[in-house]
Amino acid sequence: MTVENWDRVVEDFRSAPSLSIWRGYMKEVYCRLTRRWLAAAPPGRRLKTDLFEEAICRQHPMADFPDGSVGQDGSISVVAEARSNLGGLGSHHLLVSDLRQSPIRPGALTSILSGSSLDHFETDEELASGLAEVTAGLAPEGVLVLTLDNPQNPLIWIRNHLPYRLLHRLGLVPYFVGRTWTRNQARKQLESLGLEVTQETAIAHVPRAPAIWLDSLTRAWRGDRLGRLLLRAYLAFEGLEALPTRYLTGYYIAIRASRPPDRET
Questions:
Q1: What is the pLDDT of residue 57?
Q2: Which of 58, 181, 192, 203 is deepest in the core (most CB within 10 A)?
């Protein structure tokens, strides 16, 4: 997907009604994941590879990031809007750069959240190139949290096998979705880059289309109390992560990987 297209998508989202319940749900899903998987990461600089959520709303995972964290996105408009929304989080550094050509020097990062950022490329080669560039910035003992669209989820599988133009015209897909990998494919790619996969799971289990529709309905009723109840109901779906069927219900696969310690003396 081109930078110009992302600029247009951000403008469309800014002019559309706010989905505050849905955005709050997704923020909490990612914040829970990073708290759980990055708690043991070495102190230091953290990277978030996508600033779309930061650009379109004030409910985003970077609000939970430590001072000095870095945000990276290929769109100037996305970064500009994210900077405006981050407001008081002025200690964060935002970069405009293609994930396939990262300016971050090797080993500069102790933790990375790449949340469904790399699955917007059209080819496997671009996806692999982006992953290699992102992980190159990870220091020894640093931790990567990677999420990708889950092709094992039946709804994602159907979406990926239908024409994008049709889905976009029907309003089911607001932006282009590209290549993704299975858990096995992602694990092999990470291991080929010298990382050790330590945990795997699936996240975001609430059915997306009904959840967004209910969010819109609640907003029309201006029901704050109902909205809080709905958010709790959405988050209750994350209990499905504990079941063996989690890879059928989760919208994203999530993988935690770390770079082995530098053994040179």
A1: 74
A2: 181
Burial category of 32 from C-beta neighbours within 10 Å (exposed 0-12, middle 13-18, buried 19 and up): middle
| DSSP character at residue 68 | T
Give the burial class of 142: count Cβ atoms within 10 A of its Cβ; 0-12 exposed, 13-18 middle, 19 or more buried: buried
Residue ranges making up the domain that contains 72: 3-258
Q: Do 120 and 176 form a contact (C-beta atoms < 8 A)?
A: yes
Residue 264 lies in a domain: no
Do the beta carbons of residue 145 and residue 113 sit within 8 Å? yes
In the chain, the number of structural domains is 1
| Domain-embedded: residue 165 | yes
The DSSP element (H or E) to which 140 belongs, if any, is: strand 138-149
Average pLDDT of the residues in 150-164: 83
252 assigned to some structural domain: yes
Q: Is this prediction's pTM over 0.70?
A: yes
CA distance 30 to 53: 11
The answer as to whether 249 is a domain residue is yes
- Per residue in 124-145, pLDDT (tens digit) is 999 999 999 999 999 999 999 9
Helices 76-86 and 3-15 cross at an angle (nearest 10°) of: 40
- Cα-Cα-Cα-Cα dihedral of 237, 56, 13, 157, to 10°? -40
Q: Higher model confidence: residue 136 or residue 56? A: 136
DSSP designation for 261: P
